[in-house]
Design brief:
Helix content: 25-40%
Structural class: alpha/beta
Number of strands: 15
CATH superfamily of the domain at 4-14 and 113-230 and 364-428: Response regulator
Number of helices: 14
Largest sheet: 5 strands, parallel
Radius of gyration: 22 Å
Distance between the termini: 42 Å
Strand order of the largest sheet: 2-1-3-4-5
CATH architecture of the domain at 4-14 and 113-230 and 364-428: 3-Layer(aba) Sandwich
CATH topology of the domain at 4-14 and 113-230 and 364-428: Rossmann fold
Shape: globular
Length: 448
């Protein structure tokens, strides 16, 4: 671990910003799709495994048929304990719409343990926090960046802070968790891998609440939460940005790596649920001129690129030849991989992509990314987004209860604006940038 003076040099005092919006419920009759979704949700708790996943997907498809006004109107009539409300509320949050009321979470304190009352902005950290991270092995470099970001936020906070202890999960998660629980921590942050997250949430009533730093196949246990920079979440954000732009027919061009595949599948599913036509789902190759020739009546109105920078640069002149370069082009954050030379990256001009807020603009409580990178290797290059992720894990440590109790609280973090859905998952709305003159330029929080 780096020395305390270096951590203190990076840290600046600051706290999360929150916004609160309320909406008055409106009496009405449920729409057909919403009523059908209620029927499916009524039996959801009794399902398990693939049947439960399929039922959840069917509910999401039905809710996706509703426009914003209808979804908000119908959701406002549901009580917090209605089995459909978690699904409807998540759909609202993903569209950037306010919740009519809080989710019914049961335990919303995340391990209260007699903590002092919350501050005016909702800051109410635990008394003792255990960080479950791999200190050695293949995930050690990832864990180091997350750890340093977390500690930067921790030491930058001037108010009451919890005591911290670190537990190495590289020799086995179960043993590390048992030690952390026995030591009297009232919140655990971690683990980092999807496999360990699934192991952590196997028990519906864990000994200590967790803020898991990944998302597996199991939902968080009651009183716990999961935070992730997953490709699937980015795919949903890309789809929503295209829908917000009014796109109805999208051409997708994607690479074959696992992250690219997962982002593509998520974006495609989210678009199709909302009635957006997928004109083509093309695998990337260096020569795509023939593949880009769309059949008559199948012209896209936007292009989604799930590619790295060099792939997108190679594709750019072929899009121009096919008469597609004038269309809106959105890309995943992978577009930044292999970029950095403006004269080469000018070929990417006009492409819009999601990114972590801290990488493109100042975040209260953090030094600039360039300043931090000059002092710590974990804040530069590809590790910078993990550093930002770790910083946001600290913000969430102190604001989980606020997010649980206030239906429209948001934490303005280093990775984006963070909220908590009814299933215990942290939802993230990223910032957006656009290549201009071969250089990424911040668009703030909007992709329009």
């Amino acid at each position: 671990m780096r020395s305390l003076p270096l951590i203190l040099a990076l840290a600046l005092a600051g706290c999360a910003g929150v916004s609160n919006v309320s909406r008055t419920p409106v009496a009405h009759a449920y729409s057909g799709a919403f009523s059908e979704a209620r029927g499916l949700a009524a039996n959801h708790a009794g399902l398990s495994g693939q049947a439960r996943r399929d039922n959840g997907a069917a509910i999401d498809r039905l809710l996706a048929q509703l426009d914003d006004t209808s979804l908000a109107r119908d959701a406002a009539r549901l009580t917090a304990g209605d089995p459909l409300y978690n699904f409807a509320g998540r759909a609202l949050l993903r569209r950037g719409l306010p919740l009519p009321h809080a989710f019914d979470r049961g335990d919303a304190s995340f391990g209260d343990a007699g903590r002092p009352p919350a501050a005016g902005d909702g800051y109410r950290p635990p008394l003792r926090v255990g960080l479950l991270l791999p200190m050695s092995g293949s995930q050690a470099a990832v864990a180091a960046a997350v750890r340093d970001g977390y500690l930067t936020g921790y030491y930058g906070e001037s108010r009451r802070r919890p005591t911290l202890r670190f537990y190495d999960t590289s020799a086995g998660f179960a043993a590390a968790y048992a030690r952390a629980a026995a030591d009297g921590n009232d919140l655990l942050v971690g683990p980092l891998t999807r496999e360990n997250v699934d192991a952590a949430f196997t028990d519906d009533t864990p000994d200590v609440p967790l803020l898991a730093l990944n998302r597996g196949s199991k939902s968080p246990s009651p009183g716990s939460a999961a935070f992730s920079l997953s490709p699937e979440d980015e795919g949903v954000s890309l789809a929503q940005a295209l829908i917000d732009r009014g796109s109805h027919a999208v051409l997708i061009i994607a690479g074959s790596e696992d992250v690219q595949r997962r982002t593509t599948e998520s974006a495609k599913a989210a678009l199709e649920r909302r009635g957006v036509r997928i004109i083509g789902d093309l695998g990337y190759s260096a020569q795509m001129s023939d593949a880009l020739k769309a059949p008559a009546g199948a012209s896209p109105d936007a292009i989604l690129l799930i590619l790295k920078g060099p792939q997108a640069r190679t594709l750019a002149p072929q899009l121009a030849t096919a008469g597609l370069s004038g269309l809106p082009r959105l890309a995943s954050s992978q577009i930044l991989v292999g970029t950095g030379k403006a004269s080469d990256d000018a070929a990417l001009d006009g492409i819009i992509f999601p990114t972590e807020t801290w990488l493109v603009q100042r975040v209260p409580g953090l030094p600039s990314q360039s300043s931090a990178a000059a002092q710590a290797r974990t804040a530069k290059g590809p590790a910078a987004r993990l550093f930002a992720f770790g910083y946001d894990a600290w913000l969430l440590t102190g604001h989980l209860e606020q997010l649980a109790l206030d239906p429209n609280a948001r934490v303005a973090g280093a990775t984006g604006r963070l909220s908590l859905d009814g299933f215990g998952n942290i939802l993230r709305r990223p910032s957006w940038s656009q290549f201009t003159g071969g250089v990424p330029v911040s668009l703030g929080d909007g992709a329009r």
